Amino acid sequence: MEPTAPTGDQVRQAPKVLLHDHLDGGLRPATVLELAREVGHTLPEGSDTDAATLGRWFAEAADSGSLVRYLETFDHTVGVMQTGPAITRVARECVEDLAADGVVYAEIRYAPEQHVSAGLTLDEVVAAVREGFEQGTAAAEAAGHRIVVRQLLTAMRHQARSMEIAELAVAWRDRGVAGFDIAGAEAGYPPTRHLDAFEYLQRENAHFTIHAGEAFGLPSIWQALQWCGADRLGHGVRIVDDITVHDDGSVELGRLAQYVRDKRIPLEMCPASNIQTGAAASIAEHPIGLLTKLRFRVTVNTDNRLMSGTSMTAEMSSLVEAFDYGLADLRWFTINAMKSAFLPFDERLAIIDGVIKPGYAALGV
C-alpha cells in the first residue's frame, strides 16, 4: 500500500479496463429523454421534465435492494433502443463516455433479442452497435483518448433464444464481437437451462461469461463453471459463502472457492450495483476486500452506469476510500482485467505493456 491515497484526479487519469458493463444500463439521461420523445415511449410520471430529474429517477428506482426491481428500470432504456440510429447513438456515446473516464479497453454487453420489437433483425442490431462503437472510437481518438471496445452478446436466461444468440456471437466474432453471456434474474433460471448453447460455444472455441453468484449463491457459480464451462463469472460475489474467516483471523477456503482461486477464474465485480441489488450491504462490507486480500482474480466494473450513477473512476475511488487502496492496487485490478479480456493474447499484452503500465508509471507506480 502507498503511504498516501491517490487523489481523485490520479484515479481519473489512471488507465482502466472494463469487462462488465451493460449498453442498455449506461445511457445518458438526456439521451433517454430525447429518444423517448422521438419514438413516443412513455417515461415514469414526473421523471420526464428534464435530464437531471430523469437521472435521479433511475438511481432511486434502482436503489431498491432487489435485483428484480433493479432490472425493471431497463424497460425504459431498452424501450428507446429499438431503431438502428438510436442504438448507434447510444453505442457511440457509451464509448465517448468511457474514454473520457480513462477506460482504455472495454467489453460492452447487451441482449440483441431485446432490440427487435420495431422490426430490426438480430444482425441489424449487432451492426448498429458496431457502427456506434466505431464512431465513438474515432471521436475519442480525435479528443486524444485511445480506447478499444468489443461487444459481448447476451442471451436472457428466462427466454429460449440462447442457442440463436450463441450462433450470432460466433458469426460476428471477427467483426467486433468478443464473446457471449447470459443475464437476467438468477433464481429459477439456472445456467444449465442453456447447456446446449455453452456446449456449442466450446466446440467453436468461443469465449463466454455467465452472470452467476449475484442474487443466487454457490450452486449458481458451481453450475456456471463445472456444468457450463464459463471463462469468467459475472459478479461472483457469493463465492465468499465458501470462505470461512475464523476468530483468530485465519481463513479457510471451501473446495469451490479454492478451485476458483487456483484456476484464476476472473470475477467481474461491480461494487455499486451489488449494493443496490442487495448482494452486499456497503462498500466497506463488500466481499471484494476479502477476495482481493486472498488474491482471487478480482476485476472492478461498473455494471450499469446510469442506474448506479457510477463510473470506473467512481468505483475505484470508493474502493480507495473503503480499503485504503493505493495506485499499485488499482494497477493490479486493471492488469487482472486486461489479462482476463476476451481478446487475443498478443493484443492483451500490447495494451498491458504499451498502455496500462506506462500510464501507471506516469503516475509514479
From TrEMBL:
Annotated binding of Zn(2+), by residue: H20, H22, H211, D303
First-level EC class: hydrolase
Cofactor: Zn(2+)
Keyword Chloroplast in record: no
Pfam families cross-referenced by the UniProt entry: A_deaminase
Designated name of the protein: Adenosine deaminase
Described purpose of this protein according to its UniProt entry: Catalyzes the hydrolytic deamination of adenosine and 2-deoxyadenosine.
Binding site for substrate: H22, D24, G184
EC number: 3.5.4.4
Catalytic activity: adenosine + H2O + H(+) = inosine + NH4(+); 2'-deoxyadenosine + H2O + H(+) = 2'-deoxyinosine + NH4(+)
